[in-house]
Amino acid sequence: MQGDARADNRGAILELLESRVADLVEQLNDCRQENEELKSEISSMQKILRSCKLPVSGGGAEAAPSSELSKGFSYTEKLQVRQKLVLILQKIEMELRDERLD
Predict the structure, then answer these.
(1) Angle at CA 40, nearest 5°, toward 25 and 98?
(2) What is the tally of structural domains in the chain?
(3) Is 9 exposed, middle or buried (0-12, 13-18, 19+ CB in 10 A)?
(4) Residue 59 exposure: Cα atoms within 13 Å on the Cβ side
(5) Dist. CA 29–CA 51, nearest whole Å
(6) Are the CB atoms for 61 and 76 separated by under 8 Å?
């Protein structure tokens, strides 16, 4: 009798462990997919930043060529967008590093 109870208990524990392992594997796969999507987004943002090719230091809007001003965005606006994108990328990288440490 007592042996049957132990066997039933072990079976229940084993089922619970298997269920939890399956849940963890599913969660891990979801995290991997999300990680790949984030890497893709970071890569796209880096390409956008590289395409800007704006100098980080130097003169302000007065140093911008007139051809830059006629294309829609002013030199200053492009520089501000680039700086904001850099900040966003830095925040994303910090969050990813924090998640890896957890």
Answers:
(1) 60
(2) 1
(3) exposed
(4) 6
(5) 33
(6) yes
Cα–Cα distance measured from residue 72 to residue 74, given in angstroms and rounded to the nearest whole number: 7
Which tokens sit at 99? 């998640």
* pTM for this prediction: 0.46
Domain with 35 in it: 2-101
Q: What is the DSSP letter of 70?
A: T
Which residue in this structure is represented by tokens 């700086």?
83
Report d(CA 25, CA 31) in Å as an integer. Answer: 10
Give tens-digit pLDDT for 46-71. Answer: 887 777 665 555 444 444 555 544 56
CB atoms within 10 A of CB 102: 4
